[in-house]
Amino acid sequence: MNGARSLLSGLVGAGVDVCFMNPGTSEMHFVQALDAVPDMRGVLALFEGVATGAADGYARITGRPAAVLLHLGPGLANGTANLHNARRAHSPVLCVVGAHATDHVRHDAPLQSDIDAIARGASGWVHTSGTTRALASDAMRAVEATGRGGGQVATLVLPADVSWSDGGRVAPPRPFPVPSPVSIEALDSVAASVGEGTVLLLGGDALSERGLRAASRISRATGTRLVAERFAARMESGAGVPTVDRLAYLAEQVRPQLAGATTLVLAGAPSPVAFFAYPGVESDLVPDGCAVLELADAAQDVVGALEALAGRLASDVDPDLAPLSPVDPEPGPLSVRSLGAAIAVTLPENAIVVDESITSGGGLKALTTAPRHSLLTLTGGAIGQGLPVATGAAVAAPDRPVVTVEADGSALYTIQALWTQAREQLDVTTVVVNNAAYAILRGELARTGAGGADERAQRMLDLTDPTTDFTAVSRGLGVPAERATTSEELVAALRKAHAEPGPHLIEAIVPPVA
Amino acid sequence: MNGARSLLSGLVGAGVDVCFMNPGTSEMHFVQALDAVPDMRGVLALFEGVATGAADGYARITGRPAAVLLHLGPGLANGTANLHNARRAHSPVLCVVGAHATDHVRHDAPLQSDIDAIARGASGWVHTSGTTRALASDAMRAVEATGRGGGQVATLVLPADVSWSDGGRVAPPRPFPVPSPVSIEALDSVAASVGEGTVLLLGGDALSERGLRAASRISRATGTRLVAERFAARMESGAGVPTVDRLAYLAEQVRPQLAGATTLVLAGAPSPVAFFAYPGVESDLVPDGCAVLELADAAQDVVGALEALAGRLASDVDPDLAPLSPVDPEPGPLSVRSLGAAIAVTLPENAIVVDESITSGGGLKALTTAPRHSLLTLTGGAIGQGLPVATGAAVAAPDRPVVTVEADGSALYTIQALWTQAREQLDVTTVVVNNAAYAILRGELARTGAGGADERAQRMLDLTDPTTDFTAVSRGLGVPAERATTSEELVAALRKAHAEPGPHLIEAIVPPVA
Q1: B280 touches chain A (CB under 8 A)
Q2: B471 has a chain A CB within 8 A of its CB
Q3: Quick check: is B170 in a domain?
Q4: Is A442 a domain residue?
Q5: Does A290 touch chain B (CB under 8 A)?
Q6: DSSP E strands: which ranges in A273-382?
Q7: Distance from B180 to chain A by nearest Cα, in Å?
Q8: Exposure pattern of A472-489 as b/e (b: 16+ CB <10 Å)?
Q9: Which of A264, B336, B480, B504 is least surrounded, with the fewest CB atoms within 10 Å of its CB?
Q10: Using one digit for the tens of pLDDT, what is the confidence trace for A211-269?
């Protein structure tokens, strides 16, 4: 059996049975092996950033890695922005990067480049497979590596000759890493600190249903305040789940949120820092004089730790669960507020919501009143994540409807994802919020102290002239689309999209707010 | 004056007065400085790969660098595939990558990543500017670096605080590197070798009009055969220019092309190698027993060397110039052949032709019969280069019509370029050849010896289900579009597009050939 076949067989044996891909010549044996290993599902993407973002979305829903097949250094580079988001999400992702045959490298053919250097931009583990015999075993190490540190990107570079040569043998899977337990000392230390004045900052797995329920019990029993990290890889939300306020995006909004805290307990979340630096503004958002304790980092069993604390401190206390209480949006022209209400009031049960709404997301707080759902957000700040993550989430959970709330500027980064949604007939409803601007940058221009901007600068933040017609682009890529300018139209379009199988796109015309 | 303003002023002083950009928060002061430095033209791209590819196209036409403004590591990664193509084109390109403020880095905010590592994937020069005082001076070194080695990518990392702080001062430009002369010994050695049995392999600047004329005279006087490298950054072509056959793409086609050569003289071109490796196939395409001499590499004055040789060997010989002789395409349904003929017969004078037609480019040989034009090709094999390069070429030469021949699969990589063409009202006519497949990969699947492919593998190479409607996508991005299925329709659409100002797209439906 050739290397490629041993690789695919090994991966399937390790439970990695989906591969998002954009292959080229050096990956042809991998592609051909799809016929011999029918348990591996190949999903074609028309741009690598779609494939890597889809693997991120898949991992956020399943907790397990999908494979991504990329073509040499440029293909890896094209996928790196969404690998960066996956890294920040602690998503396990296995990249297989096809490379020139070992003996071809010295000829410096046109596609030769430093794959390792590019891989270091987002991967926590990088290895070039040297022999066909060891390939499947290398792949098992790579799969294991994706689970380390709470989840990371592992990149296996696959020279074409290693793939095409005979002598491959399947290797047994390695145990997938599990979170390490939190020490008794850490639990004791946090148990002694909870109470009024303490803020429990929840992140990572603490935002799972179990984590949120335990945190809610601790909060009710002790008066500890709960805050969730801003950019959660996955947060359970909606009716039947405890509602937790999220940290604000802007430093000046976070400061009042955390004001008065004397102790900050990090439960799976990093210490709060400003997203960007600004002249004369402190980046560290921990209040002056506030102690910081770490209950668990991303690699540790934060859910177990929270449940242990709840057992100690709140054994007879129930969590505070959100009721189902969505409210119809105010009728008339769409606003950021009515956009959120329309999505909440139409949200199907057990949905997955992908939020890359940037400045148009203010109204999405209404989702806490909606049916129970999983919320996936832009973890690494590299825009163009929403459509791909939604694609992968839908592949991971074919029984769950996916709703993507997507900003116009971000949508255009990886718009090719719509095609994959059409091909795979995924149940994804994309709401593109068209405000015809990089609206966030208008606000940032002022906040960075850059001062006013005249026409020449403003034109670099403005997405009119021409204004994209997302319905045309979507139809061109095979996804039926319509436009909504009022709440009534948006609600009707959402209900229709949720009722019909396959992907849909709704272009929501909303005035900019930033 | 703040750093950003000193940077823009310095760049303009050094003749770098176009900046293709997709900025973010950390670049706001750079954007704001556009108002204060009106000689710097900002051109917005909706995806970084468009910005970097445009800078490549700009450089190929002007021989000088444009700047590219990118947002942190993910923005650089998104632009890296086309920087790879620029590197292979020896295009001078100046990347300015905004980074977090110096003191913000230690907080590991969401967008923090290893920018240097990613930059090494395509840049020959990388430097992080440490102080506002030195910023403009660093930029002058960066501009100089873009001209070294025959042209390369230089990346200047710009921390936000270096950009926003006061204390910037403009630095004087440094002399832009010029090609180094070829030694007399090298000229003597080649002069002694030309004649029957010798092949002069022309690349880089040897494919300029002066280079081609000198080479043609040498060929006529001595019987030396001329061959051009396959993937030229820029090659002059058409009526009034010597016609030179290009190396074939496939190794098995190159071997007969070079068969019988006893000496191969490299004139600005690398030694011929297979684009990809294949099982049991030698990558080195120099015939057995053939001597290889290097007249000039990319950093050397190959035009001067060819003219010196022509002066010695062919002082009374004129070059062989192509006549204007386009032939109408055969009427009826489009084929690869009639596609090329239609483009040639309608080509305006002094056009720029960007060829990323992949398998559909066979008919473009007809361009040698068309009016004189410059031909820009896919130098690095990283697809998604055509639309961006055409965009930058059109910015560089507003008086020259640009025609892009673009494969469907490649077009979808960086389709956002159409928006920039619409915004800047560039005179670009894009012919997307829609064969609804990664047709080249069907051929490669067989050539790599991967064997036959059944449905599951074939589906990864197939772009139907759904087939993209490029006219809808194009209109959605602001570029008027129509579809052509016959030669008559294509000729009419081309004539109309050439007659009207601004960008146009024509979707040409052509059966796959690979």
Answers
A1: no
A2: yes
A3: no
A4: yes
A5: no
A6: 291-296, 351-356, 373-377
A7: 23
A8: bbbbbbbbbbbbbebbbb
A9: B480
A10: 999 999 999 999 999 999 999 999 999 999 999 999 999 999 999 999 999 999 999 99
